[in-house]
Write a structure and sequence with these properties.
Helices cover 54% and strands 0% of the residues. It contains four helices and no strands.
Length: 109
């Protein structure tokens, strides 16, 4: 095989390897169901927050006058043992409603 043909084949091989590697490591497509929406903030609290905060696993968060900004920051970033919840779990609009619900809620939902 002559040098020019060998160089061309090597170039094709390397290009293909780079393309395949880039494709393999790219982020997977978003397969979350489109159009899903929480019914209301009480539903979010009952299905996500109450699992720990009403079971005395985590500290109570209702009736503590926590600022909505603080609640949103902790939900998005986590805090100590509490995990962060991504926008794919609680979208920003629902999170704002949840933060208002928690900061203003009375016992019982």
């Amino acid at each position: 095989m002559n040098m020019a043909k060998w160089g061309k084949n090597l170039f094709i091989l390397i290009s293909t390897a780079i393309f395949v590697n880039g494709y393999a490591w790219s982020a997977p497509p978003d397969t979350s169901p489109q159009g899903f929406a929480w019914k209301d903030s009480a539903e979010i609290y009952a299905k996500i927050c109450a699992y720990c905060h009403e079971a005395q696993v985590a500290p109570p968060i209702r009736n503590r006058s926590l600022p909505p900004e603080y609640i949103r920051a902790v939900v998005r970033n986590g805090n100590r043992a509490m995990p962060a919840f991504r926008a794919s779990v609680i979208d920003d609009k629902s999170l704002a409603k949840l933060a208002d619900f928690v900061s203003k809620s009375e016992t019982g939902y």
